[in-house]
Amino acid sequence: MSNQDWQGKRVTVAGLGVSGIPAAKVLHGLGAVVTVVNDGDDERSRTQAAELEAQGITVRLGDGATLPESTELIVTTPGWKPDKPLFTAAAEAGVPVWGDVELAWRLRGLDGREPAPWLAVTGTNGKTTTVRMLASILEAAGLRTAAVGNIGVSLLDAVLGDEKYDVLAVELSSYQLHWAPSLRAHSAAVLNLAPDHLDWHGSMEAYAADKGRIYEGNRIACVYNAQERATEDLVREADVEEGCRAIGFTLATPGPSQLGVVDGILVDRAFVANRQKQAQELAEVTDVNPSAPHNIANALAAAALARAFGVGPAAVRDGLRAFRPDPHRIEHVADIAGVAYIDDSKATNTHAAEASLAAYDPIVWIAGGLAKGAAFGELVTGAAGRLRGVVLIGRDRALIREALARHAPEVPVVDLDRTDTGAMSEAVREATRLARPGDTVLMAPACASMDMFVNYNKRGEAFADAVRALAESD
Known about the structure:
This protein has a nine-stranded mixed beta sheet, with helices on both faces. A six-stranded mixed beta sheet has the order 15-16-20-17-18-19, with helices on both faces. Strands 3-2-1-4-5 form a five-stranded parallel beta sheet. About 35% of the residues lie in helices and about 20% in strands. The chain has 18 helices and 20 strands. It is an alpha/beta fold. The model has no long low-confidence stretch (mean pLDDT about 95).
């Protein structure tokens, strides 16, 4: 779309916040007549509304259900569920609904510059780490790039800003993909699939279908997890451009058109001259920080996307060596009296916790929080043989306690009947009491944090603070 196409176009932005406000400002700047609707009418919303209204944007607080008259397009923030009355009204009126990602995609090249290709990543877990690894690899190759999207950096800023990029590393959530019908990436990866956000999508099938949208129209490579058939199925179902290849990644020895691991080396049998007989060494497992199995998988996915873009093996190695993970992702906090303390507060669902638990043995596990409808039987069954003990915190801890009673009855369990933030200090003390030299105290809650903390970052900080206080008193 050209600038002229936006002049006078009546656009409704659904929701304030990190994506709604930038979208409203961009659309207003293009000449659209913008109305923002928002369910909330609290002090923060009123402050945000006042800022937008000062620029000439109409804001309706406390009314996110009614479709403004003469609306030609809705641009929604990712958190708004598809069953909202606003979207029902839009469907009945024939009004299209775009997300912030779709808007950014449509606005590429608006300034006349050649748009940067997108290397896109989604999955239930590991998205942010993989995208940041990918950006590190691309930078090591001398490319101008940025990690953007669901990672917290606005795609609109990347697309419309003054910075000129060669390629973008784009993290996309299932919410964003649901509202991005015309997205066509250079190459894309689905890291894994496990039940999550089913209250938003309505079913696992709908959730998987939205994840699979990332493959639609891919030009060069659809990267999938060769150890999870569900991700390969999404590739098979995708409508891609002629010549686009399916590229698997695996923690095992790779087959042709795959990346994998051989004797502690990350190897490529996909982007080589003879896939049947050749393998290109990319990096050592020890170049990946941390070298937990699921993080090796993230590194392989990032390497596959970079290789699809033509990046050489030396840049893959150098980029992985330079990468440092974000806090609260299997982060080593301290060693005290022979016990390692690991903060994986980002493990907010069972799939993430399963990967974290698989990386250590023996474990004293700190778990619990908001279960979001999850079941824990399979998780406990898989980890039972590695558990020295368990300390439970949070509102839905009883669900994990019941799973432990059924599937790991011999494992000692401490159930902390408190949900105040001070519970974390007690949890660390109890975990220390259960641990022996050589053990790992692992805080991988398998639950969301909002029953006790503002977010998983604050939960991780509370754990780290408690561990450091323990070290100082030791």
